Inverse folding.
C-alpha cells in the first residue's frame, strides 16, 4: 500500500510599503469625487488602537492613542499632573500646523518660487514654525526627555532627523493622535484594486509593464504633450502625471537642464532597510505597531544624518 502525504501550507502576503493609513477623510473625499465611496467599493477601514507602543531601553513603554483618557494616564505617568494640560497645548499647536498646511499648502499649487509669496500663505508663515525644529517645539511642552522622544520620532517617516525637521511637521503626530491610524482589511492593495475598478468602469485603459523613455514637451518646453515609450510608440496626452522620483525624472525623462543638474547635487532624504518576517506564534506583548527608541536619541540621528553611519543603537 502506498502512503498518502498531507501538506499543511500557509500563505502569508505582506504589504510591501505602508502599514498604516492616515487621513481617512481624504481617501473618502477622493472616492466621493468619483461618485462612489470606500464602502461601495468594498474597502473596509479598521482603526488600530492603540496607535503605537513605544519602548525604551529599560523595558518601560508609552502607549500612543487617540483615547484622551488613555493619554492622560500615560502623559501624567512621566510629566506629572500638569503634563496633560501641556500635552493638550502641543496638540493645539499641531492642529494649527495641520489645518494651515492643508488649506494653504496641500490644496494649493506651487508652480514657481513666486507662489511662495502669496499673502495668504505668508500671513500664516510664522504660525507654522518652519524655522524651529520639531524637537525644539516639543521641548516647550514636554519637560522629560522621554516624552520629547515619543512626540518627535515621527520625522523618521519623512527621512528627516527631529533635530532638523521643521516644527511644521508636528502635523503628522496630530493626524495620528486626533484622527487615528487605520488599516484596510485585506491589505493596502484593496484600495488600489478599488481605484482600478472605478477607473475601468469609467473607461480608463491601464497599460502596465510599459516603460516610458521620455516625456514629450512643446518646442518651448512649456507644456507636456505626451510620452515616448521604450518600444518607440508615442502617446499624446492633454496632461502627463509623473510619479517617478523627481531627480530621476529630470535626468532621464526630460531634456537636460540646469534644474536637473542642481537636483542631482542636492542631498537625498534617508530611507530605511525593511525586513518582512512571518512568525508562527503570537507575541502578546507586541501589538500592531511597536517603535523601539534609542536611549542615545540625538546621537543615533546624528550618526545617520551627519556622519552617514549605522548608529550603535538603531
Amino acid at each position: 500500500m502506498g502512503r498518502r502525504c498531507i501538506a499543511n501550507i500557509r500563505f502569508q502576503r505582506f504589504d510591501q510599503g505602508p502599514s498604516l493609513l492616515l487621513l481617512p477623510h481624504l481617501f473618502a473625499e477622493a472616492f466621493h469625487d468619483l461618485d462612489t465611496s470606500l464602502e461601495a467599493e468594498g474597502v473596509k477601514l479598521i482603526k488600530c488602537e492603540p496607535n503605537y507602543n513605544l519602548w525604551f531601553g529599560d523595558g518601560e513603554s508609552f502607549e500612543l492613542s487617540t483615547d484622551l483618557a488613555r493619554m492622560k494616564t500615560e502623559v501624567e505617568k512621566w510629566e506629572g499632573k500638569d503634563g496633560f494640560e501641556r500635552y493638550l497645548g502641543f496638540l493645539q499647536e499641531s492642529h494649527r500646523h495641520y489645518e494651515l498646511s492643508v488649506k494653504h499648502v496641500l490644496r494649493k499649487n506651487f508652480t514657481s518660487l513666486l507662489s511662495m509669496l502669496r499673502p495668504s500663505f505668508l500671513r500664516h508663515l510664522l504660525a507654522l514654525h518652519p524655522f524651529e525644529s520639531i524637537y525644539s517645539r516639543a521641548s516647550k511642552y514636554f519637560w522629560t526627555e522621554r516624552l520629547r522622544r515619543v512626540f518627535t520620532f515621527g520625522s523618521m517617516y519623512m527621512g528627516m532627523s527631529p533635530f532638523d525637521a521643521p516644527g511644521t511637521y508636528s502635523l503628522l503626530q496630530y493626524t495620528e493622535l486626533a484622527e487615528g491610524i487605520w488599516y484596510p482589511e485585506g491589505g493596502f492593495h484593496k484600495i488600489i484594486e478599488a481605484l482600478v475598478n472605478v477607473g475601468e468602469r469609467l473607461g480608463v485603459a491601464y497599460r502596465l509593464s510599459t516603460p516610458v523613455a521620455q516625456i514629450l514637451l512643446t518646442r518651448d518646453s512649456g507644456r507636456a504633450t505626451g510620452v515616448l515609450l521604450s518600444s518607440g510608440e508615442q502617446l499624446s496626452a492633454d496632461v502627463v502625471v509623473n510619479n517617478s522620483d523627481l531627480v530621476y525624472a529630470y535626468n532621464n525623462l526630460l531634456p537636460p537642464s540646469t534644474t536637473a543638474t542642481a537636483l542631482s547635487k542636492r542631498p537625498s532624504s534617508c530611507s530605511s532597510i525593511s525586513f518582512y518576517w512571518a512568525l508562527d506564534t503570537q507575541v502578546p506583548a507586541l501589538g500592531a505597531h511597536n517603535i523601539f527608541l534609542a536611549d542615545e536619541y540625538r546621537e543615533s540621528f546624528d550618526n545617520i544624518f551627519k556622519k552617514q553611519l549605522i548608529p550603535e543603537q538603531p
